[in-house]
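Q: What structure does this chain adopt?
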Amino acid sequence: MRCPICGASQRVDVSRPPGDCVCASCGALAWIGPRVDSTGNVRAAIEQSVEELSQLCRRDVPVEQIGDVLVKEVTHCLAAHGAMLWLGDQTRRRPRGKRLRLVAATGRCDDTPRFAEEVSETQRDELRKAIAEGQEVLLIGAPVVRNSRVAAVIEVLQRTGSRPTAQRGYLRFVRKVAEIFAGCSALSMGES
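A:
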């Protein structure tokens, strides 16, 4: 398969059903085979989502508006259960960690920041199985690092059952979105 986002050419394991796979290079979700014809041009839709987010981050718009687009697009591109954007509170400095506030969410989400706080504390990407609303999910967390500080955390509730290579691909995709969001001018407000 050739990735619709990064262009990498690779062999992939396609899930049956639904016929999706994840690029091992960037984490983009793609559909293979007859499913592409029935769902339209999936590649173009993912590319458009990433480009829309990039353009929005370059404009002078409120972080909440960008957050709404970010969680919707991440949920859509990964076919996830839901996604959340947690923003670090820059005004309240604490010796251990930061207070996080939920800025945007879509789909099935847990509004307690425990996992996001762990990602913020360690400043590392994280994959972990957990139980949400009585169902097993794969939690994906990526810190949004700006000026060597965690400014925000992107948290995704992904479906389980995917192979480890696909899970790493999901994480790489969320990490890429975090990198795009880190360049957002709206995050510079409140930095000192």
